[in-house]
Write a structure and sequence with these properties.
The structure holds 2 protein chains of 2 kinds.
Chain A: E1 5-7, H1 11-22, H2 33-37, H3 49-56, H4 60-64, H5 77-81, H6 88-102, H7 107-113, H8 119-141, E2 148-151, E3 154-157, H9 165-168, H10 171-201, H11 218-231, H12 234-237, H13 243-283, H14 289-297, H15 307-331, H16 342-366, H17 370-389, H18 398-412
Antiparallel strand pairs in A: 2-3
Helix pairs in contact in A: 1-6, 8-17, 10-18, 11-18, 13-14, 13-15, 15-16, 16-17
Chain B: E1 5-10, H1 15-18, H2 21-30, E2 37-43, H3 49-62, E3 66-71, E4 88-93, H4 94-100, H5 111-128, E5 144-147, H6 151-162, E6 167-170, H7 201-209, E7 214-217, E8 221-226, E9 232-237, E10 241-246, E11 248-251, E12 255-257, E13 274-276, H8 277-286, E14 300-304, H9 308-311, H10 349-353, H11 355-372, E15 377-382, H12 392-400, E16 404-408, E17 410-416, E18 422-427, E19 435-439, E20 441-444, E21 448-450, E22 494-496, H13 506-527, E23 544-545, H14 555-559, E24 566-567, E25 573-574, H15 585-589, E26 595-596, H16 602-610, H17 618-621, E27 625-630, H18 634-643, E28 652-657, H19 665-673, E29 678-683, H20 697-714, E30 722-726, H21 735-750
Parallel strand pairs in B: 1-2, 1-3, 3-4, 5-6, 5-11, 6-7, 11-22, 13-20, 14-15, 14-20, 15-16, 27-28, 27-29, 29-30
Antiparallel strand pairs in B: 8-9, 9-10, 12-21, 17-18, 18-19, 23-26, 24-25
């Protein structure tokens, strides 16, 4: 039988939860409608009923160690059908927000990310970095809106030349090192976050499953998660069956694969430039053949017919389509049932920023509007920085945290392996 | 006696299709009682305006003093068939009890016509033995006595004064205000019903003391209430005896906090920092919530409303409500009536009965904790949150406070920690495990125990004693029928309101006070018109005693459920018509049959039974069974069953009675001597969950039945031929099976009545 647990209610924690999006949590009267209607909740010790009462009692220990917050995909069915308007879906979202805020180090970024108050500093960091580069380069080039002509591998100022963003913001010395550093920073932050999270899960009870055999290895679980949950979105798809849920699923799938496409494009450019042009051609002196093809594939600006460019533009289109779906669903939410919090809007805005400034840069570049093209590209850099550098503390952090948690849940038997039945 | 009758037979509602109405008219014209039937007619639709006008014309022309309407149930169209105070109306229920419920499978032909003829004869006979009652109309006192000057009593006094009545308000304590005066706040009484508010008792006291129509007596004791409703003489001792002429009494004596020793299983009395809600309220009222052990303000307070540890073993008994009852003694004991004892009725059950208030008080006092300090925590550990009605809003508001933490919990123990704090152990919580919660202070519920659980309170000078009988059924709460007749007690003229009859909130008590005052006024103005107050409101009839034949056996005085009858030294009953509810229990009790009502009496019902034609050969003509059906539940249930297409044996004949309590043994003897094969007494449930409108009627009938069965046995008639069944008004679907069971188990088994054919 269960052991007696000393309950240590924490009023401050309740109030904190209310501030990060769980303001209705006190309304719950434990009827368990939420757990019954949830399409994903396991039969054994289901969420979100138990999280609601833990939250009411401020049982911080229970909640910060709870893996179930990552099992929820937030369709909002529980909140829609809650007879008290307690919004359990919002509470789980709030708990995830708390995790984003506190899991990764340095936690000061988590604090900045948790409310609109932190936005100016988060924006100013990349804005200043790239403004300094712009001012410096304008001094070197003699103009803030330069046009270039290509001469072999070199770029030259030319009054009748073309807009080349790499000319103003050279990848070799500024863009790539900065983003490289940002990427490393992000990876280390995630590493600390994952370590904290896995440690917290140690207190989760392991489910004994009859006939299950040996516990699967973590890697098997991770591969299973990537295959079932990430690539196919299968649990996400079965999370709610209403029109709005389908809209959300489609939107998320499009945004997800748009990012995959754009990631491929970025990789091709990086590999083409650093491996093809720099390593093979410049350092090794290999010209033509495969090396030439690799260097060419990553060379920017690309011609519009380049398959890489086509993929990039297709990705941009998919991103916009997905964003429209997600945004229109979120704006149509019935505030009495479930609401959107700062984390939701931050992420949507940043991705909209990336998409619009990205496409804007391309269009203005192509129509030769240098006064519009460079500032738009500048903003694009700022938005991409804001997404990447703060990723572990943003809602997008779920890319990593949820994946790890779902894999862990498989390992301890909280979720079954394989396809969803 | 009705001497000139009009008999009308309706042909509507399938009657004309199923019955030969012309033949019934001919039959009536040739019957034994044809002599008093001045008019015998049929009509296609008797309830049509034309038909009613025709009856009215006949009454005028032929001077009819009674009409027998052979049509539908008396429960239908009663408003159409009214022909003034001088014309008695008897309804013969051919529709529900003959045509609609006729079992068409019967093998003996002509049964339906036989049945209709029986009922018509019975109806004519009944009316021929009925008089229009002429009750005395005493000049009644109009003043109202309010017992208790607490929140309910104050409201009752004001309500009565607003309705123009003089009021005498008697309060035992030196100050008015009662329990409400000791409360800091009470549950919300106005929109938006989310905040505790002031009780308003100070304002009520000011209003009462300044009202010229209300005479307030404090530090006063009720010496006695003598007489009968409308005619009470009340003696009060308030530093000297004072006498008042009173019409009716509102009982608002309220409650006392329950004995806290019942809370010992949760640490009360053992640990200093375990207090009751009553003690906590007093602290809050005094302005300082502190721990008794060190006088410091508690940082966390646990309110426990789960009292299962304390009520273990005190659960309501699962006694069979229809348990067999002791037969009545043949003769009441001789000598002086015993002094009636009122043993204390308080138990741990009162904790459970108070659970609605326990829930609300926990929410209210949790609010006190939160108001005292923004960091302080209030835990509410409940078995159930019982917050019916608008108070759901109050519960929601309390829930919204982040510092009020609620969980269902079954408390398994309370122990003291080294620092004087308390550790509450609980299982079955919402938190998903067996838990321990530490709190600086534990607050346990206070039971609401009505003052009537400990004392007679009313000091009535009645033969049956100064207090209310049978209060053990309600663990001391005053009530005669909880759902159907609130305010009404077992003593006509005394109306209970507030926590003396049920644990309730101030908001409810205010409404209760108004309800009880209206009831008191209804009582006074019924008494002065000579009619019954309730439940037979407006009934003109009253029991008439033929004292010449009375043997002073005291049966009637002892068995009257309402203590209506006093007696003199010899034991001769002294009727008090204004106390009487006209159930006829006295009539049923009287072995000498000296008690009768003008329109309901032993001879009348006996004669009706004798009108049933009983075939000499049970095989050829079928058996006959008389069903004495209670008018309040059984009769409507039969109507409903017929209305819904149920049918039953065509060999039963129904005789409506006011209450099974009014059934006199002689009727059964009449039936059996006539050759009737069985008698069913169909009435209400009795026992702890009784349904009887007259509280004791069906139970008394059951006790008398045992005696009847013995007498039958001596005559060589099987005791099983007389059976009592319980049916409530909503059990109409069970009626056919009940009758069927009797027909197969009793009649088929025992065969014909040995008296048949004599």
């Amino acid at each position: 039988m269960s052991n007696t647990v000393r309950v240590q209610p924490d009023l401050k924690f309740v109030q904190e939860l209310q501030q990060v999006g769980g303001e209705s949590l006190k309304k719950c009267y434990q009827c368990a409608t939420c757990s019954v209607v949830c399409p994903l909740s396991p039969a054994d010790s289901p969420y979100p009923r138990k999280e609601m009462v833990w939250a009411q009692w401020g049982l911080k220990d229970k909640l910060v160690n709870d893996i179930d917050i990552w099992l929820c995909h937030n369709c909002g069915t529980c909140s829609d059908l809650c007879p008290r308007g307690a919004k359990p879906g919002d509470l789980l979202a709030a708990l995830r927000n708390m995790a984003y805020r506190s899991l990764a180090k340095p936690s000061i970024i988590g604090t900045w990310m948790s409310s609109a108050k932190g936005l100016p500093i988060l924006f100013l960091i990349p804005a200043l970095i790239y403004m300094l580069i712009w001012v410096y380069r304008a001094g070197v080039l003699g103009t803030a809106f330069p046009l270039f002509a290509t001469d072999g591998h070199e770029l030259k100022l030319a009054a009748d030349g073309a807009i080349i963003f790499g000319g103003l913001f050279p990848g070799d010395f500024f863009i790539d090192p900065i983003f490289g550093a940002v990427f490393l920073f992000m990876v280390f932050a995630f590493a600390s976050g994952i370590a904290t999270m896995l440690k917290s899960f140690e207190s989760m009870p392991k489910t004994f499953i009859v006939g299950r055999g040996k516990e699967p290895c973590f890697l098997c679980c991770l591969i299973d998660t990537l295959k079932v949950e990430v690539a196919q979105h299968s649990r996400f798809q079965s999370c709610g069956t209403e029109e709005k849920d389908v809209q959300r699923f489609t939107g998320h799938l499009f945004v997800f694969y748009a990012f995959i496409a754009l990631m491929v494009v970025t990789s091709v450019v990086a590999v083409g430039h650093w491996f093809g042009a720099f390593f093979l051609q410049h350092l090794m002196g290999i010209e033509g053949g495969l090396a030439g093809l690799i260097a060419w594939a990553g060379h920017t600006p690309m011609p519009l017919w380049s398959p890489v460019k086509l993929l990039a533009n297709a990705g941009a289109g998919a991103l916009i389509y997905g964003l429209i779906k997600l945004t229109s669903r979120r704006t149509a939410l019935d505030a009495a049932k479930s609401s959107s919090n700062w984390y939701d809007w931050y992420l949507l805005t940043v991705i909209w920023g990336i998409a619009l400034t990205g496409i804007g840069s391309e269009i203005f570049r192509l129509i030769g509007q240098k006064v519009l093209a460079y500032p738009t590209y500048y903003l694009h850099l700022v938005f991409v920085f804001m997404m990447l550098a703060y990723l572990p503390w943003s809602k997008l952090g779920h890319v990593v945290y949820r994946t790890v948690a779902l894999a862990y849940a498989r390992k301890i038997g909280r979720l079954p392996m394989g396809e969803l039945k | 006696m009705a001497e000139k009758l009009g008999v009308y037979i309706c042909g509507g509602c399938d009657l004309g299709k199923s019955l030969d109405v012309d033949a019934l008219v001919d039959f009536t014209k040739k019957s034994k009682l044809a002599g008093i039937c001045a008019v015998v007619k049929k009509n296609a639709v008797l309830c049509s305006p034309d038909a009613v006008a025709e009856i009215e014309a006949d009454i005028k022309e032929s001077g009819l003093d009674g009409v027998v309407l052979c049509a539908c149930s008396p429960r239908a169209k009663w408003d159409i068939f009214r022909f003034g105070a001088a014309t008695q109306v008897e309804r013969v229920n051919l529709r529900e009890q003959c045509v609609w419920s006729f079992d068409k499978d019967a093998k003996i032909p002509g049964l339906l016509d036989l049945m209709a003829k029986d009922y018509i004869k019975m109806g004519i006979m009944k009316l021929s033995k009925s008089r229009i009652p002429t009750p005395e109309t005493p000049e009644t006192n109009q003043a109202i006595l309010v017992l208790g000057g607490g929140f309910t009593g104050l409201n009752a006094a004001l309500e009565a004064a607003r309705m123009g009545r003089d009021v005498v308000l008697v309060e035992k304590a030196a100050e008015l205000g009662g329990k409400a005066a000791g409360m800091l706040k009470t549950f919300p009484m106005s929109h938006p019903y989310t905040k505790a508010e002031d009780t308003g008792v100070a304002g009520l006291i000011a209003e009462v003391t300044s009202n010229a129509k209300i005479k307030v007596l404090t530090s006063a004791e009720l010496t006695s209430i003598e007489g009968a409703p409308g005619l009470y003489t009340v003696t009060v001792n308030a530093g000297g005896e004072q006498v008042f002429e009173i019409g009716a009494v509102d009982l608002a004596t309220g409650w006392a906090p329950g004995d806290a020793s019942y809370l010992a299983p949760m640490g009360y009395g053992k640990y200093k920092n375990v207090v009751t809600t009553a003690e906590f309220e007093a602290m809050a009222k005094a302005g300082k919530i502190v721990r008794p052990s060190d006088g410091k303000a508690p940082a966390s307070v646990a309110f426990i409303t789960d009292v299962s540890l304390c009520t273990k073993g005190a659960e309501p008994s699962s006694l069979d409500v229809c348990a067999p009852v002791e037969p009545l003694p043949d003769k009441a004991p001789e000598g002086e009536p015993e002094v009636v004892a009122y043993p204390p009725l308080e138990s741990a059950k009162h904790l459970a009965y108070s659970s609605e208030l326990t829930s609300l008080v926990a929410l209210k006092q949790a609010g006190y904790v939160r108001e005292s300090c923004s960091e302080a925590l209030a835990f509410v550990l409940y078995d159930h949150m019982m917050v019916p009605g608008i108070n759901e809003r109050y519960y929601k508001a309390a829930q919204d406070d982040a510092g009020i933490m609620l969980s269902k919990a079954t408390i398994t123990g309370v122990t003291e920690d080294v620092d004087g704090g308390l550790i509450i152990a609980a299982k079955d919580t919402l938190l998903g495990a067996d838990v321990e919660i530490k709190a600086d202070l534990v607050v346990l519920p206070t039971a609401i125990v009505p003052v009537t659980a400990h004392q007679a309170t009313t000091n009535l000078v009645y033969r049956q004693g100064p207090g209310f009988p049978d209060l053990e059924l309600f663990d001391g709460f005053v009530d005669s029928n909880y759902i159907c007749f609130p305010y009404e007690t077992r003593r006509t003229g005394v109306y209970a309101a507030g926590c003396v009859r049920q644990p309730m909130t101030l908001a409810n008590a205010k409404e209760d006070a108004a309800g009880a005052v209206l009831k008191a006024i209804q009582c006074i103005s019924s008494a002065n018109r000579g009619v019954a107050v309730h439940p037979r409101s407006g009934d003109l009839s009253y029991p008439v005693f033929n004292f010449q034949r009375c043997t002073q056996c005291k049966r009637c005085t002892e068995e009257c459920p309402f203590g209506a009858l006093d007696d003199d030294e010899k034991g001769t009953p002294k009727p008090n018509p204004t106390r009487c509810r006209r159930c006829g229990t006295c009539m049923g009790a009287c072995p000498e049959r000296v008690i009768s009502f003008d329109n309901y009496n032993v001879d009348q019902i006996g004669s009706m039974i004798k009108e049933v034609t009983v075939p000499d050969d049970m095989v050829a003509g079928g058996p006959r069974v008389i069903v004495l059906a209670c008018e309040n539940d059984a009769y409507p249930a039969l109507d409903m069953a017929a209305f819904r297409g149920k049918s039953w044996s065509p060999f039963v004949r129904f005789v409506p009675v006011r209450c099974l309590g009014s059934v006199n043994a002689i009727w059964v003897a009449d039936a059996v001597s006539k050759g009737v094969d069985g008698v069913i007494m169909l009435g209400c449930k009795y026992g702890a969950d009784y349904q009887c409108h007259f509280v004791k009627g069906s139970e008394l009938c059951s006790r008398r039945k045992t005696n009847i069965a013995e007498s039958l046995g001596r005559l060589g008639v099987e005791a099983e031929r007389v059976e009592q069944y319980e049916v409530s008004i909503d059990e109409y679907d069970k009626v056919p099976a009940l009758i069927e069971r009797f027909m197969t188990e009793v009649i088929t088994k025992f065969g014909p009545n040995p008296f048949k054919g004599y």
